[in-house]
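Give me the fold.
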Amino acid sequence: MSGQTLPLKCSVDYVSFSAHTDYQQTSEFIRDLRPAHIVLVHGEQNEMLRLRSALLRQYEDEPDYRLDIFTPKNCESVSLHFRGEKTAKVVGSLAKSAPTEGQPLSGILMKKNFSYHLVHETDLPTYTDLATSEVTQRMAVHFSMPPSLLYFHLAVVAGSVETVRQKGDCHVYRVFQCVTVTWEPRQVLIEWQSNPVSDMFADAVQTVILKAELEGMPWQSVPAPARQDSTAFRTALLETLSEMFGPDSVQGRPDPRKSGLTFQLVVRNRQVEVDTGRLTATCEEDAPLQQLVRTVINRLRQVLLPPLRQLEEAQAAS
C-alpha cells in the first residue's frame, strides 16, 4: 500500500458471455427433448416473437409432433394442459369372462380417489355403498279376444313370442325378452321391469293390444300363418351371395337341405364364416365385409323366415 509495484503472478483472459441462448442452441435443445410446451421468458419482446415464429416453422410439417410456445409478459400467467392416460379396471361379473378384441363393454364407471372401476349395475351394492332397487310395473288391459288372436298381434309387433305357460284360462307369453303378457278371460296383464328400453317395449305391446280390442278382428279374419321353409332360406342365401361376390366365392358345395348349415365365403382373400343355424357371419379380417354379409342374412331372414311359426300352436291351444 506504500506505492510499491507487485509482480503479476496470474493471467487475465477475456471470455464472451451471454445470459440467453441463441436460436441454434434453443433449437437443438428442443429437438433433443421434444417437449409439448415451451415458455420463452427474459428476452426482448420482438426477438422472442421472432424466435417463436422460427421454432413453429421448423416443426409445422411434423404431423406427429404438436408444439405449443408461449411468450408471456412479466407477471402474466400461463396455463398448461396435460393429457394423462386413465385406466379403468373391470371388476365383478363383467370380468368373469375374458373379452375379445373390439368387443364393447357396457357398465357403470366409478371413480374413487384417482382410480377408476367399471362394474355391472347389479354389482353396485358390492363395490359401493349405493343401494339399488328395481321397479316392477303391471298394467291390466281389457281384452275380450281369444289368446290365439293375442299371440298373433304380439308376433306381429315383436317378431318372436316365447310361450311361458299355457294352462287352463291362463296363457303367459314373453316378448322382447323383458315384457311378460298374461292372458286371462276378459283381460290381459302386462308386466315388466321398469327401465327406458323396457318401458318403450311395454308401450308398444299395450298399443297393439288396445288396437286389437278396438278393431275387434274375428279369428276368421286373421291371415293364415306363413310356413317356415329353412331350405328355401338357405338356398336363397347361397344364390344371393354367389350373385354378389361371384360363383367362386362360396367354397365347396354346401347342401341347402342340411339343417344348421355352415360354409366358407371368400371375398378379396378375406374369409367369412357363415352359420345358417345361428344366422351369423364372422370375419375377423374385414369388419365392413362381415357387416355386409350379416345384413344380407338378416334381410333374407325377415322375408323367408316369418316370425309367426308358432301361431298354429297358439290357435290350437285356444
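The chain has four domains: 23-70, 88-127, 136-222, 230-304.
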